[in-house]
């Protein structure tokens, strides 16, 4: 096993599988880096239209500090299904808390779970069946298991070039959040804080409208998913009517488009209002 650019994350091969050993602590702090390595491994395993064996995500002695590890596995499974690439998880029998989380959320019914790397790589590889996979119910189950994750922010806020403005949608119910500037590791937590403040102010129906030239330099989906879970639990919604191409590619690739839809048809009204602004 060799170390990667993510502290504590290692990569190796065994019997044709790419094996990723996860850090001992998994949280939103290292989520983005781990997710990038998992995505790279899945792409490599299916490079050129051929498969090695697949990808094994080894939780080993990892401790889940929040829901990041579960979201990581759910999104990785969506990616693996779209590629037709086998994905397996290793969770030692002694890691009862991780196994319980996988069972309660239904993740263990999507991703085969093994007690060790040997058994994970020795099991036969079935024929791939590329296609769409819906992990919405699993993501909702993760939210229910970890309701406090909606308010997590990776780093303290700092001055940035992200402009956030809010307005009423005109239907007396929804709040529109307009974004322009750049989403990066500094500004995404600011967005999370803004949305959390709106939710705590009893704004349950939100629409995040992104300027077509908004820069996207990091993955904002963990924050957006957390807020979506929180408002959905109270019958609200978090809609993304239009997003930059780079972010849309990630959302479509990981099957999350249906997650970010409004709870009622209000987009025509909002888009008309945007055209007259």
How would you characterize the overall build of this protein?
This protein is α/β, with parallel strands linked by helices and 277 residues long. The chain folds into two domains: 2-145, Transcription Regulator spoIIAA (2-Layer Sandwich); 158-276, STAS domain (Transcription Regulator spoIIAA). Helices cover 38% and strands 19% of the residues. It has nine helices and 14 strands. The protein has helices spanning 28-45, 68-83, 96-105, 117-122, 136-145, 187-200, 221-232, 245-253, 267-276; strands spanning 2-3, 10-14, 17-21, 25-26, 54-58, 63-64, 87-90, 113-114, 163-168, 175-180, 182-183, 205-210, 215-216, 237-239. It has a six-stranded mixed sheet. A four-stranded mixed sheet has the order 9-10-12-14. Strands 4-6 form a two-stranded parallel ribbon. Strand 1 (2-3) and strand 2 (10-14) form a beta hairpin. Helix 1 (28-45) packs parallel to helix 2 (68-83) and helix 6 (187-200) runs parallel beside helix 7. The protein is elongated. Residues 150-159 and 268-277 have low confidence and may be disordered.
Briefly summarize what is shown.
The chain is α/β, with parallel strands linked by helices. It has nine helices and 14 strands.
Write the layout of secondary structure elements.
Blueprint: E1 2-3, E2 10-14, E3 17-21, E4 25-26, H1 28-45, E5 54-58, E6 63-64, H2 68-83, E7 87-90, H3 96-105, E8 113-114, H4 117-122, H5 136-145, E9 163-168, E10 175-180, E11 182-183, H6 187-200, E12 205-210, E13 215-216, H7 221-232, E14 237-239, H8 245-253, H9 267-276
Parallel strand pairs: 3-5, 4-6, 5-7, 7-8, 10-12, 11-13, 12-14
Antiparallel strand pairs: 1-2, 2-3, 9-10
Helix pairs in contact: 1-2, 6-7
